[in-house]
Amino acid sequence: MTEMTLVKTIILKAAPQKVFTYLTKASLLEKWFHEGREDFVGGKAYALMSKEHPGEKLCWGEVLEMEAPNRLVYTFTHTMLAGHETRVTFDLEPCAGGTKLTLTHEGLGDGPADALNMLSSHDTGWDEHMARLREVVEA
Question: Which residues contact 47 (CB under 8 A, 6 or more apart)?
Fold first, then answer.
């Protein structure tokens, strides 16, 4: 077992409450990440849907912590992870009139797939998603 954790930090020109809304509301998630079936709710399961295959789940898990507007933690898996659950944490801190957003994605090296490829794939994916989040939240 190899423990691998991704940590990414970005500064956003938006208040933490606005950023938090983009992390948890289905109608806003699809603008930067994936389409949600419904808003994230603490203690409840969630599913994000595929754009390429309508009606098919792409990512899913359970919301473990939801402390608006400071913290969101959920389990995260998808078909490439073969059901192996990882953990995604978003920490939001006020910063110079905006938000410092830190993403931590843990457990990628524990799954059934090639750990280096899985880590590299998620590293690239999160970079793309975070760039889109910056675009939409600052618009």
Answer: 36, 37, 57, 59, 60
The architecture (CATH level 2) of 5-25+67-138 comes to 2-Layer Sandwich (3.30)
- The answer to whether the predicted template modeling score (pTM) of the entire model surpasses 0.90 is yes
Q: Are 87 and 120 in contact (CB under 8 A)?
A: no
CB of 16 closer than 8 Å to CB of 92: yes
Residues 71-126 have pLDDT tens digits of 999 999 998 887 789 999 999 999 999 999 999 999 987 666 677 888 888 999 99
Domain boundaries, the chain: 5-25+67-138
